[in-house]
């Protein structure tokens, strides 16, 4: 019987290749998120950076999340709420992933912060509806806003966004800056990365994979991949022109390995994270040592500590 975890990781990396960032990282059918980890020891980062502690989270007992089905523009979205106090912490997983991506982090955060924790399934994922047509981060931001509005969570929010969800976060925070007390961007897809040259390179690298995918039998997963890949070039050239509101504090966590196997692309990824952080004094960089792009899986301790720091900062 196929291993469901391995299958989900293969799909995860296919999504990275097609719709998020890492075109060259792996093929559509095979790539393991748990590649050999970087053995380097923790070091002191530059002045604008911080390296998080390596302590592992412990098992905890926390309240179980309740399911809330939200309607926006005719489709249904699944939100999961673990009760607590403010600030509310909202977790948004990367491309091809649903709320279960955070299942090991949520109970620890709930126990240690006493905050309300919210996760959700984007359209085409988990219990949420499929929506035909191209996927756009702006529409996903509208879904998130509708969910938080219907849940009554529209102020003092700590938004945590991984990978592709960084694009959703950028649109969301630009539209609702007063809702967000602070953000944690986990190896997030940021506007600074998508220069004309890098975007053209990603588009060219995707062409054969997209063509091959269109020839395969269509499933929910493949339809979602193609929706996210639609008009990738124009979408990301427009995204490159956006900026994060300077009034909203943010911490960017960058992985040790980045999503890319090639040194040039990996360095561009790191530079984009640093450029984002350097653009305002209320931002900082955290380096997740010994981590692949899947920082919440490889180094949940780094993610938890950084979220706790942000929550304490904005209380």
Automatic annotation (TrEMBL):
Stretches for region Disordered: 39-67
Compositional bias ranges of the Low complexity kind: 39-66
Gene3D superfamilies: alpha/beta hydrolase
Location of the AB hydrolase-1 domain: 89-304
Annotated keywords: Signal
Molecular functions (GO terms): catalytic activity
Residues in the signal sequence: 1-24
Record's protein name: AB hydrolase-1 domain-containing protein
Lineage per the UniProt record: Bacteria, Bacillati, Actinomycetota, Actinomycetes, Kitasatosporales
